[in-house]
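so my prof wants the structure for this chain in the C-alpha cells format not the other one, which i didnt know existed until like an hour ago. anyway here's the sequence
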Amino acid sequence: MAKANQTEVEHCTYLLYFLPTVGLFSAVVCFPQRVQQEELDKIEKHIKSSKDKENAKPLDKPEQFLYQLSLIPNFSGRVFCILFQSSFSECMSSIMKKLDTLQRVCKALQDSETVKTVLGLVLAFGNFMNGGNRTRGQADGFTLDILPKLKDVKSSDSLKSLLSYIVAYYLRHFEEDAGKETCVFPLPEPHDLFQASQMKFEDFQKDLLRLRKDLRAKSELETLDAQLSSTHKLFLELTVFFSVKAKAGEKEVSLNTLFCIWHEFSSDFKDQWKKENKAILKERYEQSCQRRGCPLWSQKLNLQTNPNQVTQGQES
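here's what i got, hopefully its the right format
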C-alpha cells in the first residue's frame, strides 16, 4: 500500500477542516464559486513577486483561503463527493423517518387493543342510541366517517357530547391509570396521524428514483425500497380492514383520505381525554381529602351544607 506524502496529508487535513468549519450549507454555496484559473494566476504571481521582498503585502484572508484550496488535488471532485454523501444520507434518513411513522400508525390502528376498545365503545353506544330501530340498533360495524361527527351528537341538555361520554366511560372502566401521569393515550398521536395524512406514496417513489439516478443501485436503496413496499402493503391492508373505498379519480385509497379522518377524531378524542383525566384527578384528590378530614375539604363541605355562612360572615 502506497504511503501518502506529507503534503497530501496536509491537504486532506485542510479539506476535512474546511467543511465542518464553514458548514455544509456554506460549502454548497461556495462550491460553484471556487477559484478560477485567472484568479489563481494572479494570486500565484503575487506570491512569487513578493517572495523575496521584506515589506511585501500579504494576501488577504479570502485569497489565502482560495489559494490553500487550489493546492488540494482533485478538490472539486472531493468536495462534490462529500456534499453528495451528506445530502444522500439526509434524504435517506428523511424517507426512513417518514416510513417509520407511517408503519407505526398503520400497525397501531390495525393491531392496538386500545384502539379496538375505543371503536367497540363507539359501536356499542351507537347501537344503544338506535335501540328502538331494528335495522340501525343492531349494527355490526360503522364507517369511519362517523368518528369525527361524534362530538356533534349532544345530550338532551347539550352539556355533553357522545364523544365526551365515550372518553369518560373508557377512562373509568378500561384505564387503570386514569387521572395519573402514567395514563397512556389509547389512539395514535394526532401529530403522527397528521404527518401520515400529508404523505404520498408517489412522492416516495419519486425520491427513490432520484436517488437511483444519482447513485445507481446500492444496498441502502434496496433496503429502503423493500421498506417502502412493505409499508404500502400494510396501508392497503389497513384500508381493507376499515372498508375504506377510494374516492372518485383515485386508483387506490390515498393516505390523506384515511388519515385525515383519524387525525380529526384523535385530536377531538385527546382534547376530551385531557379534560376527563383532570376531572378524575380532581375527584380523587377531593375523596382523599374527605377521608383524611383535610381543613380545605371540611371548609368546602360546610359551605355546601350551609351556603348562608358566607353571607353571615360578610355581614358580621
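also thought this was worth mentioning. The two ends are 101 Å apart (CA to CA).
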